[in-house]
Fold:
Amino acid sequence: MTQELIDLRNSITEGRYTDALAIVDELEGISKKAIIRQIKSFIKILLIHLIKNQIEQRLTNSWAASMRYAILEIQDVNLKDTKKSYYVNENEWQILIEDQLTLAIGDASLEVLNGNLKRQQISQMLNQEQLLLNTTELLTMTYNYANRELPDIIDNYLAKLPGGEDWING
Structure:
């Protein structure tokens, strides 16, 4: 990116504004790609813990904290600097979730039931439709609630997952 900034400076000082705008477009693309990569990473974390919850039918403080953290980070990263638009719109989550699902199943297989199941076994056991629904509902919350409200909303949602009632009641 350093070279792009040098080229941008040179283009502006030399009056080559079309070149400068092309470089700005390239930098915006690089930035958006990095943000989407970061969002995908948080989606994977969310999926791993939702998979563990679904297979083991329980919820731990650690899993809830990881899911809450992932969702709050997605909310923060997804909102553009203008605070008026998003990198990923509400109707665009499905493909990002599906892109991360296989990776999340593989990583979850190392932890679910003490790592005694293979990725294929977990994949067969999963209710993927329910998993996608839970993930999408949690991600949709990032558009509807302020950052300070969202942790309580997330906890209320998690309390309805398998084992959630025991978790919320301590």
Notes: The chain has one domain: 2-168.
